[in-house]
Write a structure and sequence with these properties.
Strands 2, 3, 4, 5, 6, 7, 8 and 9 form an eight-stranded mixed sheet that branches. A four-stranded antiparallel sheet has the order 1-10-11-12. The model has no long low-confidence stretch (mean pLDDT 91). It is α+β, with helices and mostly antiparallel strands. The protein is built from five helices and twelve strands. The protein has one domain (17-233): Alpha-Beta Complex (Nucleoside Triphosphate Pyrophosphohydrolase). The longest helix is centred in the C-terminal third of the chain and has 14 residues, at 220-233. The termini are far apart. 19% of the residues lie in helices and 35% in strands.
Amino acid sequence: MAQRPPRIVDPKQFPIVGVDDHLPPLPGERLAEAALRERFAAEAHAWTPEFHGDGARLLPDQDPTPASVLIPLVLREEGPRVLLTRRTAHLRDHAGQISFPGGRVEAADESAVHTALRETEEEVGLAREHVQVLGQLNIYTTVTGYRVTPVVALVNPGFSLALDAFEVEEAFEVPLQFLMTPAHHRRHEMTWQGLRRQFLSMPWHAPDADGLSREYFIWGATAAMLRNLYCYLR
């Protein structure tokens, strides 16, 4: 059985080997509600995901656990914003990291969409009546052993959240325009057992729930799925 790669505790320690400012930002009109609906309705439109995950490559003889996450695009007046969570520090997987709401598939789940909606409601209390699913991106396989289906959805304002205090330290929003601007995408590199691995980071600075300035270090699988969303919308 292949040895599982060591957990990355501090991603900031790995050097930045590039910034993708050579790629164009997505214009605001491409991120408007109507444009997002049109893009996901055009299923025949070809696209190429950039990231598939390192799980299959680094752990070829292990069966990953099926999971789903929701990429919630909140329809604010100033433009869509992505709802993200900061995980609690005591969790076994992804402790303290920035993540989409989501989790592993359960036996009663009817589909990847059902898993994403159920997990989101359990983790942050976002009621399904506020969520309109647009579609799915490619599956992403993580080095922590999950085969993740990202489900993209629009979220109508007017909702209230109730965080699961065991799993979620904080929920916050980042402008979709910021995340769809590759000048904010930084590439880090590491080597494990002779295999090179790159990951993205997209640091976002904003006041936290207490009004204190904080760096939300978006990286790893979350950043990779956001980059795939950029590729899809481009």
